[in-house]
Amino acid sequence: MSLPSYPGRALVRRHALPLLAVVLLTVVAGSLLRLYAHRQALSDLRGETLRIARQEERLLSSELQRFRLLPIVLVEYPDVGDALRNGSVEAAARLNDKLRGLAERTGAPVIYAIDRRGRTVAASNAGRADSFVGRDYGFRPYFRQAMRTGTSEYFALGNTSHRPGLFLARRIGPATAPDGVVVVKVEFAHMVQAWASDAGQTLLLDDHGVVVVTTDPAAEFTLTRPLNPSAKMAIRESQQFGTIALRPGPYRIAGGDATDREGTRYIVGVTPAPLPRWQLVHVLPSKPALKEADGWVRSVTALIAVGLIGLTLLAIWRRTRAERAAMAREALEEEVARRTAELRATNDQLTVEISERIRADQRFRAAREELAQANRLGSLGSITAGVAHEINQPVAAIRTLADNARTFLSRDKPDKAAGNLATIVELTERIGSIVQEMRRFVRRGTHGLGPVSLEAVLDGTMLLIGDRFRTAGVALERPRGGALPRVVAGRVRLEQVLVNLLQNALDAVAETPSPRVRLTVVEHPDGVELTVEDNGPGLDPAIATEIFTPFVTGKPDGLGLGLGIARDIMTEFGGVLETISSSLGGAGFRLRMRRA
């Protein structure tokens, strides 16, 4: 299309208002889109921050639960009571060896026993320069609270090592005549390294708002809120943080937002920590998310501006074409009137000058043809209406694509969006099955026994642990070719046994070329046997005969409790869990169960 050739100033004056309207609409649309995009970006960032905080809290809970079992188990050691109650030197020496071995197997920094007077009588670091043996810890709050209430969990700097950690204490003996306290110290360096792999910073706050563990070194042992006088006195008297002077932290947290000393804004995710009145806080900077949102706004605003400019140019073109057609019709009408008058004037002379009349007739015919042409030009107005309709459809598509572009650009995967949607539908069904199985697995059930489908037990176990095998690239062979029998058991606890055995097999073949794990079911007239075999290095002969004994394990970081628990569960079922020679060359375990 071509615009009419108006002079420059006249063209600006005629079309200044539509062009100004385009500019204003573009600015308004951009402002509204920016407001929406910023709100959506911050909302998504809040969700991501809270997700990370909850994920890190679950990791912390898992780590603490592993160490919380140790004081409970140590209470049952006969040497603990003898060393604390009777002051037996031989019992203390034996206890030193046991505590040292237990600390090495579990990764605990130190485990020690304190008598009722507050003096340490045995420790895992006995015989070293930093030994706790003989030291007085009667002033420590964890000792006093454990003696008073039975248990205590207290965070502080070590008086000897000067390293921070959580002290888990448990009283030995009744409250009326206690023998002393067993203490396990937990340090968080490994946990901080795991947290550091996530974006942002993580802060673990105690009940006074002190940052005790963090991925940000500048925030360690700082305050997120002022301490009251009683809290200050308690911290000073207990020497909880040694000589460290608690100072205000680098983050000012207000609700779900925070700022640092440079004014950088953060989004805050807060979740309760697995300790009384403690909180786990995760902060993510908001600037990258807002910058990404601004990029999306610029792209969509540009599309809107292109659409508005196209509509405006179309309207200008239609209006100028109509004006030109009207001017052409007016000129033709004037010409027709003039020529008609000429014909009438010359009509009286037709009898004399035939040739002149013929020429006049020819001029009349030519004028009539031009009038027909002008009428055709006027019809263009209705024809262009159809053209405008055809243009409105792509404009509407631009708006739809702009809405879709937000999702594509936010994920930065526009070429995979369609495939992802189909995949999400399939994964939703599988996630539903997994969540249902996990809920059943973790639900606190009764201890009753009954007929259980072995096929259903294996299916549930695969939902819980099958993904780990696929991720690790380990071939898992399970029984095929027909329905499996029913056995006398409890489904959840039988799944627990199988999960334990399969996890052990998966760990055993981690360094094995072409790793394989096989499940086999053999039926007998009076029972059913289920075997779990792998092609790993097999059981260490030094511990093979004691593999079901508590705290005996071939894993460097294991507690040695899983197989013992599994054997006890099978005993409750009236069955047997035993080791066998693996046909694959590694370790093998056989479960004998009663047929239902």
UniProtKB/TrEMBL annotation:
<dbReference type="InterPro" id="IPR036097">
    <property type="entry name" value="HisK_dim/P_sf"/>
</dbReference>
<dbReference type="Pfam" id="PF00512">
    <property type="entry name" value="HisKA"/>
</dbReference>
<keyword id="KW-0472">Membrane</keyword>
<feature type="coiled-coil region">
    <location>
        <begin position="322"/>
        <end position="377"/>
    </location>
</feature>
<keyword id="KW-0597">Phosphoprotein</keyword>
<keyword id="KW-0175">Coiled coil</keyword>
<feature type="transmembrane region" description="Helical">
    <location>
        <begin position="16"/>
        <end position="37"/>
    </location>
</feature>
<dbReference type="InterPro" id="IPR005467">
    <property type="entry name" value="His_kinase_dom"/>
</dbReference>
<keyword id="KW-0902">Two-component regulatory system</keyword>
<dbReference type="GO" id="GO:0004673">
    <property type="term" value="F:protein histidine kinase activity"/>
</dbReference>
<dbReference type="InterPro" id="IPR017055">
    <property type="entry name" value="Sig_transdc_His_kinase_DctB"/>
</dbReference>
<dbReference type="InterPro" id="IPR003594">
    <property type="entry name" value="HATPase_dom"/>
</dbReference>
<protein>
    <recommendedName>
        <fullName>histidine kinase</fullName>
        <ecNumber>2.7.13.3</ecNumber>
    </recommendedName>
</protein>
<dbReference type="InterPro" id="IPR029151">
    <property type="entry name" value="Sensor-like_sf"/>
</dbReference>
<keyword id="KW-1133">Transmembrane helix</keyword>
<keyword id="KW-0418">Kinase</keyword>
<dbReference type="InterPro" id="IPR036890">
    <property type="entry name" value="HATPase_C_sf"/>
</dbReference>
<keyword id="KW-0808">Transferase</keyword>
<feature type="domain" description="Histidine kinase">
    <location>
        <begin position="386"/>
        <end position="596"/>
    </location>
</feature>
<dbReference type="Pfam" id="PF02518">
    <property type="entry name" value="HATPase_c"/>
</dbReference>
<dbReference type="InterPro" id="IPR004358">
    <property type="entry name" value="Sig_transdc_His_kin-like_C"/>
</dbReference>
<feature type="transmembrane region" description="Helical">
    <location>
        <begin position="296"/>
        <end position="317"/>
    </location>
</feature>
<keyword id="KW-0067">ATP-binding</keyword>
<dbReference type="InterPro" id="IPR003661">
    <property type="entry name" value="HisK_dim/P_dom"/>
</dbReference>
<keyword id="KW-1003">Cell membrane</keyword>
<keyword id="KW-0547">Nucleotide-binding</keyword>
<keyword id="KW-0812">Transmembrane</keyword>
